[in-house]
Write a structure and sequence with these properties.
By secondary structure, the chain is an alpha/beta fold. It contains 12 helices and 12 strands. The protein has a 3-stranded mixed β-sheet with strand order 1-2-3.
């Protein structure tokens, strides 16, 4: 039986009005442990969606008083994606995976009878993979080998700039000799949205990386992501775990493989 979007979506919708400030949006994202919020007017009409990465495109990590004042006055309507990318609840889940890959999306708003009824994200698709029994390709075949790295004393402003310029959702923190000691994501930076905190080193924000070997299966990677509630794993050489990482595998990388024509995941069950 074909898996539908409605089978995997999250029905809980967290929305905010378009005049919500960026700081208020950051608080909601952290409170609900989300990566995005829907933006709707007083009638419930869906206007757009704003993500943690959208917040990072602003200059809120600037220490300049004028820029900070400007960012504090901005609302989510300025940075939100509008109209939001949507998909029908009865569409095949494989269609969602294909669209996310081709359109470089991390989530789709699920619609039914012209009303939003949920959200399906890369994480939801990866979670479904963990419950299948089919064999997948290995981590080494799917991982991203080009990763963004920084040293432990790099200031948060530089980390945010690197994420934005490289279009990366994470930065790997390494020692001078290349030993991986942490990882920081755009979501981690939300807690430092307020002024006076942006000059801290990345070591104050990073969390220990969860690692995986390149020969591990994609199911093993998905299981580990779900177990630790994370979106990415650092790929290391099992014989030299303290050397420069081999790459990074994320939920997006796994979804891209799931969306490949002819993949086992796309076959009807």
């Amino acid at each position: 039986m074909t898996t539908l979007v409605r089978d995997l979506m999250r029905p809980a919708l967290i929305a905010c009005p378009p005049d919500t400030t960026l700081g208020e949006a950051a608080v909601l994202l952290v409170k609900h442990r989300l990566h995005a919020l829907l933006v709707a007017d007083t009638t419930g009409q869906l206007l757009g969606i704003i993500s943690d990465i959208d917040l990072l495109t602003g200059e809120w990590l600037s220490t300049d008083a004028v820029n900070l004042a400007t960012m504090r006055a901005m609302s989510v309507s300025t940075l939100m994606s509008s109209p939001p990318a949507t998909i029908e609840a009865d569409a095949p889940a494989s269609q969602a995976a294909t669209r996310m890959q081709l359109e470089h999306l991390h989530r789709l708003v699920v619609m039914e009878e012209d009303q939003p009824v949920g959200v399906i994200s890369v994480s939801d698709l990866v979670a479904s993979l963990a419950h299948t029994s089919t064999e997948r390709r290995t981590v080494a075949e799917v991982m991203s080998r080009g990763i963004v790295v920084c040293l432990t004393d790099t200031p948060l402003t530089a980390v945010a700039r690197a994420m934005t310029e490289r279009r990366s959702r994470s930065v790997v923190v390494v020692e001078a000799q290349g030993q991986p000691v942490g990882i920081v994501t755009g979501f981690d930076l939300l807690a430092f949205f307020e002024a006076g905190q942006a000059n801290q080193p990345v070591s104050a924000v990073m969390h220990p990386p969860i690692t995986i070997h390149p020969t591990a299966s994609l199911r093993e990677a998905a299981d580990k992501m779900i177990q630790h509630h994370i979106h990415r794993l650092l790929v290391v050489n099992p014989d030299q775990p303290n050397s420069m990482p081999l790459g990074l595998i994320s939920t997006s990388d796994i979804v891209a493989e799931m969306a490949e024509p002819g993949s086992v995941w796309r076959e009807a069950k």
